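SAMPLE LOG
Freezer: B-3
Tube label: C17
Construct: single chain, 363 aa
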Amino acid sequence: MPKRLVHDHWLFFTATMLALAGLFMVGSASTHVALDSTQNPSTYLLKHLLNLALGFAGLIAAMKFDYRRLADGRLLLCLLAVCGVLLILVLAMPASGGAHRWLHLGVLRFQPSELAKLVAVVFMAYILAKKDGLVNDPWAVPVPGAVVIGTLAFLIVIEPDLGSAVMLVAVSCVMVFAAGINWRYVGLGGGVLTSFFTLAVILEPYRLRRFFAFLNPTGDVQGLNFQLQQSFIALGNGGLVGTGFGLGQQKAHYLPASHTDFIFSVIGEEFGLIGTVVMLLAFLVIFWRGIRTAMRVQDRFGFFLALGITHLIVLQALVNMCVCLGLLPTKGLPLPLISYGGSSLLISMTAMGLLLNVSQHSN
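STRUCTURE (predicted):
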């Protein structure tokens, strides 16, 4: 009798609780923004509820889909082609906030860079598993990987969206490092990536100004550091236990992007240090169970897929939190599973579904 497959209950419970917590926090953080734009305080809450329903549908579908089918080179080639076309098409879309990041499909908007991050993880899992043991052969893994990942990252950078590009490259590097790449390639790759990153910052004046503002967080508090200062005030107002759900003040036209990139600051204000620690611990649980899944799964593709997805979710969460705390320059990255944003939520939930899928085979 075949063994019944059972997913990791810790992973499922933690992802579900984070997504539901995000629903409540988006409802709280977006009230004033919604009143300004639509005169209805529940506008963003209702949109996020719809996005969450789609996200859960993506999670369930990914859990039911046999992840090993993604190791088919033809299917992966189609996914990469779709990503490339979408990332090119988005450049022709009207700019929003000075960037071409969203593909407009009638009333719907989709951010191809979110899909690209997940597809990049699948691609790296495929090539590392297929060329297992050949990670130090330049023509087996480093060169093909650099070409594909570099192309996706370049298309994202010119939107412009440096934060998502850095995240895509960082997760790919973690996967290659786990495969056992030689330290000389680590040094060479690190030097090349540092050069490209430095060039990307220098060539865009606003990035350079943002970097210098990060180095001096107490300067220009009414200009480039205004958002960061409001984040500090929100976190400081929260104290140990917070002001209470819905009672935060900084979301009322003080803290920009309070329901998206800086929702962690709203959590800190309304639930205090305890709330932010609980949030951090939840993502650490995902890291723990994700790494456990990777270490226990029997096939190499499943190992690298679980490893990549785990780092994709957890690294982005840590970067978002560090930005809100002033430990990193502003990146424009949402808090996975929590922030308002249909593309991010759908892809994050689908990625968690794939991780849960792999966990069914990690015996």
